[in-house]
């Protein structure tokens, strides 16, 4: 057994132990969903922060920066910064309402359980794409560092996160995320120092490669494409249940808002270090550019201890996100879809807990299998692949949620049409863009159609349908 594999096994056992410990505190569906809505600031901040740090932001971020340099900033962090500002607004409302899921807001705002179920269904499907992305990311890392086949690595990690989410629910997720957040920051700081040391030893500047010095390159080669990615992440993040759900579990409104402020500062530092690492690797070792940039640097150009620390940090980035996503899937399946389809008198909190755990297992197995199957084909660039899910979620959910918050005339008819036509437009846009027909990014089409649909069809139906404002 090599050193890296041994460290990975210890890490997995540690995380599973936390999930097992947390499972003893989960006795009902609401405890599985939102941990009794009593999470304090000191625990919610690392939980919220870890949710943003995934295979896309770490492995994909370094990959993108190693290939396209500072163009990484408009590709990802700039849009996330806009999202952090926007998230301040729903945080207060969502926590005050005492919701269990984000789609529950849509039901309350538009008096429509059906729209709540539709919002959850779209979220679950897109989270499937996101979970596959995470699986591919950790497969690449473990393959490079431990020699484990990518397919085997995906299956092993899938088993670990499915088990601890199913056992512990949000009780387990909040504690594992806190631990994983600390591990990620230790790893990213160590890797940043290592890259800077290597640059100094080679006597080169981080600006030595002129191809990596522009803000406009790769998928953000033009201003319109850069703006499109800012909108993708800004709109996509602000409707992401994995982020909004943290506000539902917060101890109070102040905790929810403080979490955004503190977390934003921590994340800004993290993404800056990610850019430095990626560009540094692109300058020093251009042959590593791409998905394997960071794991290859850790494996072949770093001390074995740093490599192990980096591997644990990368595993933590993937585990924290996959756990959060799978927890959302289990919660939404039980509380938004099952509870909508089954008469209320036939289910209680214990029944919802059983449905949450069962759906978490089933969905986790399916997406792990799909990620493993995808390894038999060329693996797409991880950050770009994951952005497709955000495009669709932006087009479907952003308008119903935020128009619902700030436009009193928004009603059920407008919200339903915004969601349906936004979804259709996003899918058509993705296909037209793939065929080279659409001259601009598909997110413009999806969100624009969704806005227009809301404005037009809200003229029909009754404004008094809204139960909250």
What does this structure look like?
With 469 residues, the chain is mainly alpha-helical. It has a single domain, classed as Sodium/glucose cotransporter (Up-down Bundle). Helix content is 78%, strand content 0%. Helix 6 packs antiparallel against helix 12, helix 8 packs antiparallel against helix 14 and helix 16 (382-406) runs antiparallel to helix 17 (412-434).
Q: What is the gist of this entry?
A:
The protein has 469 residues and is mainly α. The chain is built from 18 helices and no strands.
Structural class by secondary-structure content = mainly alpha
Number of helices: 18
**CATH architecture type:** Up-down Bundle
The oligomeric state is: single chain
The CATH class is Mainly Alpha
What's the gyration radius in Å?
21 Å
Q: Roughly what percent helix?
A: over 70%
Sheet with most strands: none
Please report which band the strand proportion falls in: under 5%, 5-15%, 15-25%, 25-35%, 35-45% or over 45%. under 5%
CATH superfamily: Sodium/glucose cotransporter
Number of domains: 1
Present the secondary structure layout:
Elements lengths: L2 H21 L5 H6 L6 H12 L3 H13 L3 H4 L1 H21 L5 H8 L2 H34 L3 H53 L20 H15 L3 H9 L3 H32 L8 H8 L3 H38 L7 H26 L7 H25 L5 H23 L7 H16 L12
Helix pairs in contact: 1-9, 1-14, 3-9, 3-11, 3-12, 3-14, 4-12, 4-16, 6-10, 6-11, 6-12, 7-8, 7-16, 8-9, 8-13, 8-14, 8-15, 8-16, 9-12, 9-14, 9-15, 10-16, 13-14, 14-15, 16-17, 16-18, 17-18
């Amino acid at each position: 057994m090599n050193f890296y594999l041994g460290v990975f096994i210890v890490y997995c056992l540690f995380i599973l132990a936390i999930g097992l410990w947390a499972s003893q505190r989960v006795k009902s569906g609401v405890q599985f969903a939102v941990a009794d809505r009593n999470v304090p600031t000191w625990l919610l901040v690392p939980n919220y922060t870890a949710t943003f740090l995934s295979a896309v932001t770490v492995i994909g971020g370094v990959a993108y920066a190693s290939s396209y340099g500072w163009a990484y900033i408009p590709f990802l962090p700039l849009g996330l910064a806009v999202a952090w500002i926007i998230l301040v607004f729903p945080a207060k409302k969502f926590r005050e309402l005492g919701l269990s899921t984000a789609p529950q807001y849509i039901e309350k705002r538009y008096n429509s359980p059906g729209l709540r179920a539709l919002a959850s269904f779209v979220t679950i499907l897109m989270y499937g794409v996101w979970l596959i992305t995470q699986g591919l990311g950790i497969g690449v890392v473990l393959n490079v560092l431990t020699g484990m086949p990518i397919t085997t690595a995906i299956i092993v990690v899938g088993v670990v996160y499915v088990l601890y989410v199913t056992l512990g629910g949000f009780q387990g997720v909040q504690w594992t995320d806190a631990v994983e957040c600390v591990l990620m920051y230790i790893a990213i700081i160590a890797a940043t120092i290592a890259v800077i040391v290597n640059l100094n030893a080679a006597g080169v500047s981080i600006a030595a490669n002129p191809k990596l010095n522009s803000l406009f390159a790769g998928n953000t080669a033009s201003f319109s494409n850069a703006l499109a990615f800012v909108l993708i992440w800004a709109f996509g993040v602000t409707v992401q249940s994995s982020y909004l759900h943290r506000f539902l579990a917060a101890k109070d409104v102040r905790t929810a808002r403080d979490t955004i402020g503190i977390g934003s500062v921590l994340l800004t530092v993290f993404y800056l270090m990610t850019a430095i690492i990626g560009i540094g690797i692109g300058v020093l070792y251009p042959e590593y550019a791409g998905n394997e940039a960071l794991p290859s640097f850790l494996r072949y150009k770093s001390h074995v201890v740093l490599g192990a620390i980096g591997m644990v940090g990368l595993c933590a980035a993937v585990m924290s996100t996959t756990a959060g996503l799978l927890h959302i899937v289990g919660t939404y399946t039980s509380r938004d879809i099952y509870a909508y389809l089954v008469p209320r008198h036939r289910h209680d909190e214990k029944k919802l807990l059983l449905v949450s755990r069962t759906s978490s297992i089933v969905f986790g197995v399916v997406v792990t299998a799909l990620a493993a199957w995808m390894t038999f084909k060329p693996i797409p660039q991880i950050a770009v692949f994951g952005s497709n899910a955000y495009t669709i979620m932006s087009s479907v959910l952003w308008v119903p949620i935020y128009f619902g918050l700030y436009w009193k005339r928004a009603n059920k008819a407008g919200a339903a049409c915004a969601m349906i036509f936004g979804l259709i437009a996003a899918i058509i846009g993705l296909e037209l863009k793939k065929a080279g027909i659409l001259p601009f990014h598909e997110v413009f089409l999806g969100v624009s159609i969704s806005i227009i649909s809301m404005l037009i069809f809200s003229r029909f139906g009754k404004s008094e349908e809204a139960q909250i404002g």
